[in-house]
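1st attempt posting a full record on here, be nice pls
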Amino acid sequence: EKQLMDYYRAEKSLLTTDTRYLLAGSFALAGDRRTYTELLPPQFTTPEPVRTSGYNFDSPLRANALILNVLLDTDLNNNDIPRYMDYLSKTYRRYRWYSTQDDAFTLLAFGKAARMASSTKVSGTINVGDQQLAYEGGNKKWKIDPFGKSITLSTRGEGRVYYSLVTEGIRKDGHIPIEDKNLQVRREYLDRAGATVSLSTVKQNDLLVVRISINCNVDILENVAITDMLPAGFEIENPRLTETTNYSFIKNASSPEYLDIRDDRMNLYTSFKGRKQQVFYYLVRAITQGEFMHAPVVAEAMYDANYYSASGAGKVRVAR
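the predicted structure (as C-alpha cells):
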C-alpha cells in the first residue's frame, strides 16, 4: 500500500482534486504531515467533475463532500472547512435532487462537523406560527405542523447550531410534472392483434398488452428506472412478454436489467449503451368496473436528474 501511495504521490497529474485530497489524508493519518501538506492544492478550489450515471457515480457534490470529509478527519483548523460547508449548503439549497452518493458523503461530513459543535453552549427559541418552543442545547426533536406557518429560530450563546425541517405528505392535487428532459418515455395499450386500445372503451376481463418505449439522446446512460403505475381497476397478468410469446406484432422486444413486479406497478431497470431506443411489453387485465385515475409512466436516471420523462396521465373507464 505504501508503494502505491508513493507512486501516485510522484504522479500527481493522474489524480483528480478529490482523489488528491484522499491521498493526502492517507499520508496524514499515517503520520506523514509533510507529504500531506505537499499534496494539498495551493489554493482553495471546488472541483466540478461531470456527473456520471454509473461506474463510480461521480458528481460535483460527491467530490467536494469527499474533500470536506478528509479535512474534518485530518486538519480541523483548516480554513477551507467552512468554505466547503458553505459550498455544499448553497448547492443543496439550489437544487431539488441528489444521488445516494451525494447524500451519503455530504451527510457524513456534516455529521462530523455537528459532533464538533456539540460541546458548544447555545440556547434559543423556535417560533412556529403562534407556538413557541424552548431550545436548551443538545439534540432535540419536535413534532410540528409547519404548513402555512412562518418558522423563526433565535439563539443565544457561542457556537453553532444545525437544524433541519423534515416534511412529508401526499399532494392534494395529485400533480406530477409531465415533461421530457433528455429522455422520452411513452406508454400504449394494445389488443392481441397489436391495434391501439382506447382507455375509454375497456371492458371487464379484457386482456391488454402494455408497450413502453423509451428513447435517450445519449449513447451511454446507466441505471435508468421506469415506473408504470397501474390504475386501480387493472392487475398485471404476464410481466415477461417477448417475441417468443404468441403475439406476432412483438418484434425486437428489449430485456430489462431487472424487473420489480408489485401489485400496483411495474418497475423496469435498464441502461443505454449504444442503443438509443428500447421497447418493453407486458400484459395487464381489466378486473374491476368503474372509472379510475391513471398516473403517468415515469422514467428517470437514478443518479442524474438531468434525465427525466413522464407522460400519459389520464383516466381509465372499465365497463361491463
